Amino acid sequence: MNKRIIKTIFLSFLFFAFAGQANSQEVCKTAEQLALEKASMSEENEQWNCWRLRCVKGVLNMSGAYLPGADLTRNCSDLSGRNFTGANLRNATISNSNLLYANFSRADLRGANLTYSDVSGASFENADLSGADFTWAKSHGANFKWVRLLPKEKIIRLRLNNMVCTRSDDEGPGNDADISYFHVRVKGNYWNGWNDLYRFSAANEGEQKTIPKGYNWAVNEELLFTVEDYQNVNFEMNVALIESDVGNVDGGAPDDEKSDETFLLNVTVNSDAPRYSVLNSDVGFDLYFDYEIVKTWFPKF
Fold first, then answer.
1. Domain boundaries, the chain
2. Quick check: 265 and 285 in contact, CB under 8 A?
3. What is this structure's pTM?
4. 159-295 belongs to CATH 2.60.40
């Protein structure tokens, strides 16, 4: 192979390599490149805001990113698995987002809005969460070790662990109830409106849950709230269920909404896993909750 052919192949390889690199950078710029662009552009420049949001959407590793005040939810509602280690996300909006297993270790999240997001499995170890709002966020195993909070601030968790069936009698003995809908909503005394804690809904006939007496319905759904120490939080629970007569055992036509019941529970939660009961003529459940202070402010010595 002569030198001219080798040179042509080498130049072609370089062309494709740089073309590919340019294309990937346009979609997924590194945190360092974003920081360099930031230095040359005004904070008020909307073009910069659009660029940084578009880049975040495709980048898995945003370690050290400089994104204060960014609205990450505008284009990037799914940020699961992203690495924001050491990132500056002060006053950022990350609400209504999927943050499953994201890493915010050592990140600056002061004043950030994470309301209604799912932070299950996410790590906030050594992060500054002073003034950050986690209210109504879902959480399973999120790591809040050594986080910093504002004085007198705390993060609490309300969890529905499980529901145990105490009555199941659809049209006589031996005919267990079929549940087509079970919805648990919660409202706190410091927040307006009802929000979902758990929802089961059968999409089609035949997908109902047949529940015998004694059945342990595992739920393990939880919500986070950011409050101040002096606030004593109480919750109201709204429980709605539909028990369907899909078996047609009495010779009549099935009644898909045979028992449509709504219950209102006044729940004062604490660490003793309180039990609350809902019951009608066909079905009954004991709902088991618990309440945990995930992290509270403590003075530095």
1. 159-295
2. no
3. 0.72
4. yes
